[in-house]
Structure formats: C-alpha cells, structure tokens
C-alpha cells in the first residue's frame, strides 16, 4: 500500500466514522456478490491491498469453495525510498514472505491459490497503464468477478491499477468491482465524492474480522516506517482501527 497523509484525517471527522450514508448502504450477500461456482480475482497494486480491501471476502469465498486468483502487480520493494533500514533489496526479500504469512493467517488454501506476480515497480504504474491493462487481461475470463482498488481513491498506483483493471475486465466481459482504501480517511466534508449509489456492504462476523486484523499485522515492514528519515508507517494506526469494522464496502 501507499502512505497517506493523516495530518488532518487523524482527527475524528473522517468519512468512515462520520458519514451518515454509511448506515444506509444496502447489504449484499457473498453469493450475490460472487455467484456460485464463479472465480474471484483480486488485483493488488501493493502487498497488503488484498487484505485491507477484501480480507473478509477472501475468507468467506474460500469457505464456500470458490476458486480464487490473486494478481500482485508490484512487490512493494520501492516503498521506503531513501531508507537504509528498509532498502529495496532487503524489502524484495521480506515483502513476499509477509504476503505469504498474511494469506496463511486468513486461512486461505495456499496449495490451490493461483497467485500471479506482475513484477512491476511501485511508484511508477501511471507510466505503464496500457501495459498493465494488457497484463491483467491475460489472466481474466469472461465469467470472473474482479476486485481491485478504487480508481478514485487518491493514490497514483492504485488509481492506475483501478483504471487498467477496469479496461481489462471490460475487454473480456468480466464483472468488475472496486474497493476504496484511503477514501474513508478523508475529511467528512469530502463524502460527496463517494459513489454511494454503487456501494454495497458485506457483513463480517467477529472471527472473520479478527483473522483479517491478524493478517494485516503480518506486514511488519509497513507497520514501522523509518523514523531515521521521517517516514511514517505505511499502514497507520487509523487504518488498523478501521480494519476492526464488522463489514467491508464494495463499489459494484
């Protein structure tokens, strides 16, 4: 994932805990979101995006026996520019290990999970959007249900992947869904930018929420940052707090 400035969004008035519309979002069941027998494809711009966006849904679909495919666009190794503690070379080793551990904590069947690693460089996806769309389309089928980060979430890499994934899904006829990450941590006054008419709420039980939170904590390199160069954690406490909500919201 990418860092977010929380200079003012760390204050109470954020969309996720102050927007009245949140209470009125229609509830959707797992079966209505992903029809029986359909394959669900999760496209993560950076390590951890798949857990933060859909960690609960991944568990529910796995329990129902749905085939799952994860496409990791980058390995996140360029997330700490200028850091001696977390150099790109060191992160290229740690990040894949963290991702495996996070998915294991979700209880996913690692032996049967189809996992595609794109090898793209993070912080530079805008420049390769057309190539991204072609790459993603290579792994999609017409009957897939696709999930990725919202193209209007506010971060260049996530926006590029959102747009590229939308193009790829459209080119093969797959069902396309987006999931916001940082949009909820904007000031409550920005709620008008949220496409509430597309929002659907997937309810999660206590155990599913606990496993999702536990999986998020597997990304140790993103929880610490690097104080020596003033780099804040890529997963700030405010995001960890939201991970404990008993639902996930998807834009259908």
Automatic annotation (TrEMBL):
The lineage of its organism: Bacteria, Pseudomonadati, Pseudomonadota, Gammaproteobacteria, Pseudomonadales. This is PIG-L family deacetylase. PANTHER family: BLR3841 PROTEIN (PTHR12993:SF29), N-ACETYLGLUCOSAMINYL-PHOSPHATIDYLINOSITOL DE-N-ACETYLASE-RELATED (PTHR12993). GO terms for molecular function: hydrolase activity, acting on carbon-nitrogen (but not peptide) bonds, in linear amides. Pfam families: PIG-L (PF02585). It comes from Pseudomonas fluorescens.
């Amino acid at each position: 994932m990418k860092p977010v400035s929380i200079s003012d969004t760390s204050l109470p008035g954020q969309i996720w805990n102050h927007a009245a519309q949140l209470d009125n979002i229609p509830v959707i069941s797992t079966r209505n979101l992903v029809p029986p027998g359909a394959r669900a494809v999760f496209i993560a711009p950076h390590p951890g995006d798949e857990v933060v966006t859909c960690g609960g849904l991944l568990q529910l679909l796995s329990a129902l026996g749905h085939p799952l495919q994860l496409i990791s666009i980058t390995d996140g190794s360029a997330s700490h520019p200028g850091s001696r503690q977390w150099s790109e070379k060191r992160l290229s080793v740690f990040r894949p290990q963290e991702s495996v551990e996070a998915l294991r904590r979700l209880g996913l069947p690692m032996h049967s999970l189809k996992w595609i690693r794109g090898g793209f460089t993070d912080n530079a996806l805008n420049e390769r959007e057309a190539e991204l769309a072609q790459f993603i389309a290579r792994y999609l089928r017409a009957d897939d249900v696709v999930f990725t980060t919202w193209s209007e979430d506010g971060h260049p890499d996530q926006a590029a992947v959102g747009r590229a994934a939308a193009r790829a899904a459209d080119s093969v006829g797959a069902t396309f869904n987006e999931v916001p990450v940082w949009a909820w941590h904007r000031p409550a006054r920005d709620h008008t930018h949220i496409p509430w008419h597309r929002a659907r709420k997937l309810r999660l039980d206590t155990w599913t929420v606990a496993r999702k939170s536990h999986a998020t904590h597997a990304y140790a390199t993103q929880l610490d940052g690097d104080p020596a160069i003033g780099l804040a954690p890529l997963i700030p406490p405010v995001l960890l707090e939201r991970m404990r909500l008993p639902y996930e919201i998807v834009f259908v």
